[in-house]
Amino acid sequence: MLFSAIIGQESVQQQLIQAVQHNRLSHAMILLAPEGAGGLPLGLAFTQYLVCDNKQENDACGKCTACIKAAQYIHPDIHFTYPVIPRKAGDKPISTDYVNEWREFITAHPYGNAYDWLQFIGAENKQGNITANECADIIHKLNLKSFESGYKILLIWMPEYLGNEGNRLLKLIEEPPANTIFILVAENQEQILATILSRTHLIKINPISKDAMVQALTSRAQASPAKAQQVATISAGNYREALYLLQHSEDDYHELLRNWLNGIFTGNRQALQEWIERISSAKTGRENQKQFLRYFINLLEHTVRLQYMDKSQLAFSDEEMDFAAKIHKLANMDQLDQIIKTLDNACYYIERNANAKLLFHALSIKLQYIFRKKELPVV
């Protein structure tokens, strides 16, 4: 994978490239990225850059033999470790047992998470692990001489799945063979063994910026500009979730929200009841209901930011900017805080299978009281 194929993250790309160009490359690093931010694509692009025979100023060449092999994930000096499951009882699996599935997965789903991978290999309810046998295999492979490149590279995806057996790698990480590079790609710093964390250089990666997300959704996923703006607002820098939202939502959240608020403010009971019937239908689905509420929460948070930040610093669409201005006229900061908490509670109950029709009916009444600055009735 080339750096040019990654969504956003230009500053981290430059940090990695300059570390190589200025000979400041750490032999063991952790790319710590939240889900869907591109930690794995960055790791894959960096491994290709390291083995490239004709490095360009900002990327690998993509044409040399090493690049071609790296792009197909078959370069003999790039090794991968990831959580796996036993195929049958008594098996002691290692990553290479799933190498064909791994190549297929990262080609099709480079922004996927551990759950996606484990379902891809048929784990169902089984727990994935990076086992003691895998650690022994790593030690064996990295003590061999490199075949073609000046580097031997190990990319460990999801080191959170390393239990105490990961301590077997400490000596190798502390005193690696010459030109051996460890690249760990993680999502949760707290779940990484402290002994490994203390021996690696931590590089923190931010969620994808909204502008980069919108551009990716329109160019790669063929989303309309309006839909891309909505999805980018909800997904908060998570490209995996953004794709999920595109695939599972046919609703225009902005139009849906406008109709709901019109019903609340005008007191049109029939229109409000029809809206509740629509949003609570089985066709809409719980996940879509939750994402709609998250969209509303994000727009309210934008409204708050708008009071303290320059408009030019905020990645708002015209629709979102107009909405924020109108909401600001209708509700003060106290009311906005109450609404956000109320919507957040509703998301919590949707996740726990609350009756959607009752929930949205009660939610509509609560919002009416908040906007009118009335005390909610105690039931």
Furnish the topology, listing elements before pairings:
Elements: H1 10-21, E1 28-32, H2 39-51, H3 65-71, E2 78-81, H4 99-108, H5 114-120, H6 132-142, E3 152-157, H7 170-174, E4 180-186, H8 194-197, E5 201-204, H9 210-219, H10 225-235, H11 239-248, H12 253-266, H13 269-279, H14 286-306, H15 318-330, H16 333-351, H17 356-371
Parallel strand pairs: 1-4, 1-5, 2-3, 3-4
Helix pairs in contact: 1-2, 2-3, 9-10, 10-11, 10-14, 12-13, 13-17, 14-15, 14-16, 16-17
Helical amount: 40-55%
Q: How many domains?
A: 2
CATH superfamily of the largest domain: P-loop containing nucleotide triphosphate hydrolases
- State the strand order across the main sheet: 2-3-4-1-5
Shape: elongated
**pLDDT averaged residue by residue:** 85
N→C terminal distance:
58 Å
Q: Which CATH-level-2 architecture of the largest domain? A: 3-Layer(aba) Sandwich
| CATH topology name of the largest domain | Rossmann fold
Unreliable stretches covering 5 or more consecutive residues:
none
Structural class: alpha/beta
Give me the count of strands. Answer: 5
Radius of gyration, Cα only, in angstroms? Answer: 24 Å
Strand/helix succession: HEHHEHHHEHEHEHHHHHHHHH
